[in-house]
């Protein structure tokens, strides 16, 4: 993933840009699949949870997949356009204050950090890595670009924080015994005033 190449036997094949890895995880079945090691999970920008569809959505799924009609797929972007959009996102401005907020938010997930709240020290075994800070800012920049904002802001960081942090923060036995989830801890962190995380 990090090297943008794949090896098969003794041959290594470079992968063209844009290069993305999407992985799915079934919450029920573990047979033949294994939970990713923390270092490998950390390389994924987002962890997106998809629950069951609504009844109306499920009806549409059934209607569209049980008949004879075959969907016609049409590309909307080519590889070069995607790379250009990625460059545009990276060029979005972001203030030092917003970067400071993202970094402090991530550092507050680490129980050994002096600024970590008491509930993090009590329930978290391992906090998020510096990659989380990078992805909070990149996610906020992307959100700003697609919503027509001129720069990344606090709201953008908060809007992607759940997806960026949930697979990087690990709870301890105490949390599991009290049925405290990673999502519970993230929600508490996000509910704190911005200035609590920027001090």
Number of helices: 10
**Main sheet overview:** 2 strands, antiparallel
Rounded mean pLDDT score: 91
Instruction: State the strand order across the main sheet.
Output: 1-2
What is the number of beta strands?
4
Examine the coordinates and then state which fold CATH places here, giving the name of the CATH topology of the largest domain.
Helicase, Ruva Protein, domain 3
Give the low-pLDDT segments. none
Into which percentage range does the β-strand content fall? 5-15%
Query: Under the CATH scheme, which architecture of the largest domain would be assigned?
Result: Orthogonal Bundle
| Number of domain modules | 2
Any key phrases for this structure?
10 helices; mainly alpha; 199 residues; two-stranded antiparallel sheet
């Amino acid at each position: 993933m990090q090297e943008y190449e794949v090896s098969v036997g003794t041959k290594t094949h470079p992968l063209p840009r844009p290069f993305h890895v999407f992985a799915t995880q079934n919450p029920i079945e573990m047979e033949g699949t294994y939970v990713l090691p923390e270092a490998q999970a950390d390389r994924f920008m987002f962890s997106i949870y998809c629950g069951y569809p609504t009844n109306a959505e499920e009806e549409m799924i059934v209607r569209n997949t049980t008949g004879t009609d075959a969907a016609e797929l049409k590309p909307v972007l080519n590889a070069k356009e995607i790379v250009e959009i990625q460059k545009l996102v990276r060029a979005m401005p972001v203030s030092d204050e917003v970067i400071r907020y993202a970094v402090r938010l991530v550092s507050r997930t680490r129980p050994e950090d002096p600024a970590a709240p008491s509930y993090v020290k009590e329930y978290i075994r391992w906090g998020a890595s510096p990659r989380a800070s990078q992805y909070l800012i990149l996610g906020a920049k992307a959100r700003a670009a697609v919503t027509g904002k001129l720069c990344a802001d606090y709201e953008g960081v908060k809007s992607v924080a759940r997806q960026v942090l949930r697979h990087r923060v690990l709870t301890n036995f105490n949390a599991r015994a009290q049925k405290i989830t990673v999502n519970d801890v993230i929600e508490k962190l996000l509910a704190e005033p911005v200035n609590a995380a920027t001090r």
